[in-house]
Specification:
This protein has one domain (2-208). 70% of the residues lie in helices and 0% in strands. The protein is built from ten helices and no strands. Helix 4 (61-80) crosses helix 5 (83-106) and helix 7 (141-152) runs antiparallel to helix 8 (156-175). The radius of gyration is 18 Å and the shape is globular. The termini are close together.
Length: 211
């Protein structure tokens, strides 16, 4: 694994792509954090959601936290095994976050009335956990990220695990009324868009991900 990274980083073309991608993702995340602070100051839209009206809210924070971050660790570990997999996942995540910036800016939402805020005691200082329970809604970050891992993975066993986790967490955030059902329904679409954009603009995508 480390040998593959050594070879890849010795390639000027790959090194430039990786550094540029890393820099752009860093900028996107900074803008995202700034946006989260901004949207707390504006009046969001309240949506009627018959699914939430039908479901009594239940606190499943521990499951959401454990499933999301354990899956993320597995996905990043899988990607890190190949420099090109790591590069492409980084690019996909950056695009996905940019898409969230666009949707959050143009359609800020108020939280569902019966929301039970997520408890993520292990991440008290993070910008994400600080703002997540209020207007960081459309589309669901939990669901979209997990579906992105599903689209990205080539390993059939991991792909199955990622799909089950993505569906389970998607249901869980609705049960806890953290997201509207609409936020979860459209999440796979945006994840797929991010996945397809990277494939389209990486001329040697399928060759690279086998390296």
């Amino acid at each position: 694994m480390f040998y593959n990274w050594k070879i890849a980083l010795s390639d000027k073309h790959f090194r430039n792509r990786f550094l540029i991608s890393l820099s752009l993702v860093a900028v996107v995340l900074i803008v995202f954090a700034m946006l989260l602070a901004y949207i707390e100051t504006v009046q969001g839209h309240v949506l009627y959601d018959p699914v939430l009206n039908f479901i009594k809210p239940l606190d499943v924070s521990f499951f959401i936290f454990f499933a999301t971050y354990f899956t993320a660790i597995v996905a990043v570990s899988y990607a890190f095994g190949s420099p090109y997999k790591c590069l492409h996942l980084l690019q996909m995540y950056g695009i996905l976050t940019f898409l969230r910036i666009v949707t959050l800016f143009f359609l800020p939402l108020e939280s569902p009335l019966a929301i039970i805020p997520l408890h993520q005691e292990f991440l008290p200082a993070s910008v994400y956990s600080e703002h997540h329970h209020i207007k960081n809604l459309l589309f669901s970050g939990h669901a979209s990220t997990l579906f992105l891992f599903f689209f990205f993975s080539l390993n059939k066993w991991l792909k199955g695990i990622f799909l089950v986790t993505a569906i389970s967490v998607s249901l869980a955030v609705v049960v806890q009324h953290v997201n509207y059902s609409y936020d979860v329904i459209v999440a796979p679409l945006f994840a797929y868009i991010a996945y397809r954009i990277v494939i389209k603009f990486s001329k040697h995508y399928y060759k690279e991900i086998t390296l």
